[in-house]
Amino acid sequence: xxxxxxxxxxxxxxxxxxxxxxxxxxxxxxxxxxxxxxxxxxxxxxxxxxxxxxxxxxxxxxxxxxxxxxxxxxxxxxxxxxxxxxxxxxxxxxxxxxxxxxxxxxxxxxxxxxxxxxxxxxxxxxxxxxxxxxxxxxxxxxxxxxxxxxx
Length: 151
What we know:
Number of strands: 9
Strand content: 15-25%
Largest sheet: 5 strands, mixed
């Protein structure tokens, strides 16, 4: 995925990164085990290492006219603080903050925040099918290309 992002993001106007595949992976990966390994009597200990932060990486090489959007899925009481921290740390334009109960749910209640102080909230809980076009409208409204046409 990292290589594909490096290849395709330079030509994109908008990047929406909904979720990390994983925050950690086994250190050494498949090279550690060399394929299948047999059960033994001793314990197996895995050392985990952080995965690359793909959104932060591509955001660090962005064009000024690109819009970058991330997500913050957090416990409700930490959600907004985490979203604001991600805005700064990852250097993205928008973060969609949504509570953990969104996982495995048919509905979402989200807040989109921007580096410029922008904030948009869903009208309470909405279906995920209704959320997608709502979010696209928010993204379109915040797109540098659109803002340039309105000036």
